[in-house]
Amino acid sequence: MQCHPLELLAPARDADIGIEAINHGADAIYIGGPGFGARDKAPNSVADIERLCRHAHRFGARIFVTMNTILRDDELEGARRQAWQLYEAGVDALIVQDMGLLQLDLPPLQLHASTQTDIRTPEKARFLQDVGFSQMVLARELDLGQIRAIRAQVQEATLEFFIHGALCVAYSGQCFISHAHSGRSANRGNCSQECRLPYTVTDAQGRVIAHDKHVLSLKDNDQSANLELLADAGIRSFKIEGRYKDMATVKNVTAHYRLLLDGLMERRSDYRRSSSGRCRFTFTPQPEQGFNRGGTDYFVNGRKIDIGAFDSPKHAGLPVGHVVAVAEQHFDVDTGDATLALNNGDALTWWDRQGELQGVPINTVEPLGGTRWRVTPNLHGNQEAQSVADLKDLRRDLALSRNRDMAWERLLAKPSAERRIAVDLSLAQTWVDGQPGFELSLKDEDGHRGVARVQHAHEPARDAKQADATLKDQLGKLGTTIFEARRVRLAWRESTCFLPASLVNQLRREAVSALEEARAQAFERLPRARPVEPPVPYPEDTLSYLANVYNGQAAAFYAKHGVKLVGAAYESHEELGEVSLMITKHCVRWSLSLCPKQAKGVTGVQGTVRAEPLVLQHGDDRLTLRFDCKPCEMHVVGAMRKNVLKQLKAEPMTFYRTRPAARV
């Protein structure tokens, strides 16, 4: 039976967070480099990435760097140079979107297809495998059957899937609202998150269906219950979203999924870890403690109606009780749970009468006995609040939640995990350069060996039983190394020998150093996949702006693979009229129970509901929702703001040198 490695892939905003993600069980880290990453506020120097690589590789873990923006022609050379710098720093793979990079003289690094490449069909996935991608992250919108269909076509490349974190409402790479409304391109790493804004929804007759609701905002992804199903469908890399997330969140979520995957592999002999070492945590992981909008498993088990975070895109927190009394400068809270304590610096939230999320930080809390607490809020951050009475709709019997728990944050600010590789130690009598001595051999869980020898007389111990116990205890003290003793064996040829503690410590240090060196020497870089020759045809022969082609090398790539007509990316400003600014599997009609499919078979309703367009309005921005019911998709249609087009600087491009002449 084949044993498949399962990879837990964690995000890192910086190298220090990446190191802690490794310590908390990640098999691989994805992180931004100095430039060209789809999170432009999370860059990292090559030196910091090299430091992260050194730490990760000690455990056999991998480092993937994101270079997944679309590039202009004048940026390609800089991207090529950066790729070589990252290769020299020890990086294991590049995550890319722009096919122009495949035309360049890149180092022999593995290439992974970014979520921005929008992989939702077996044909697209097979094409990416055949042009040289070794790993690809599938669209979040896929269900288990679609994943299995892709696995049937893709046997050589590793399939990756997001299992936790924020959800982009659009198919990744298929959202241009940010660029149209703000000039900030999601495909260039600078999304303005227009999807999290409140919109008023009206129908074709102008009737208001929803007022100031965040109808494009989704709950957060949580596949905790589906890991085994995903693995059985063909997923081998389980990806956590969050290259902007803080240290505590990454520690917490990584530890949570580490425990779940370890439990799966303990039950199933056909799955194994893809890196070395076991983790111990000083805390019990609670993903709900971090920023979240509520959880959904999205479309993995089919379409569901409750995937939206329509009331607020903010973190509402966890229930902590209710208000029992309100005074001018404080209010009293009953948690109803003797184990639940409030802390100075916590933040509380509640829903006002209009359904809007309100909140206030705590200045101080005072226990009143039992499960009651007196809360003095910090009103200085709210210019409109001079007293508790000014806090909107804060009243007796109001349910409260907590979205910042200082005790939790203090817990995770401390060292909260250790990762250790199991080793077996064997101490034996031997001869060193013709003189009596001892040999200490270490063998780790992966089969690597480290050996140290020292000359010393074979002096018999006075108390053999006590001497053996002391020696085993001393040898097993691996301290702050990355190793822990699984077994300690004393292989005496004759009687038990006496060794001074200083000699035991020397042998152990040298053997550990030798084992680390052996692991480093055995570490192999991931092989670069070779593209199929002759070049395989792309599944389509015509590409529109939706293909995100922004440079001449990308256009040449598609031409080489049989595409006859290649449109320019939306960022090139060739599409100035109304177009699909977003394509999404999320359906506002379905979520508001206005879908014809929902009415099917319902007496008196069937036939009265049609998939007519709806309108979204936010300020002066007006977007049209059009529904493509056959694939069950929604298009958000609009045009680029004229003021945005005027403000954008002209960018050097050689792919489309001139725009078509304006029609008179």
From TrEMBL:
Highest taxon of the lineage: Bacteria
Gene Ontology biological process terms in this record: proteolysis
Keywords attached to this entry: Hydrolase, Protease
InterPro entries attached to this UniProt entry: Pept_U32_collagenase, Peptidase_U32, RNA/ubiquinone_mod_enzymes
PROSITE patterns: PEPTIDASE_U32 (PS01276)
GO terms for MF: peptidase activity
Residue ranges constituting the Peptidase U32 collagenase domain according to the UniProt record: 402-519
Name of this protein: Collagenase-like protease
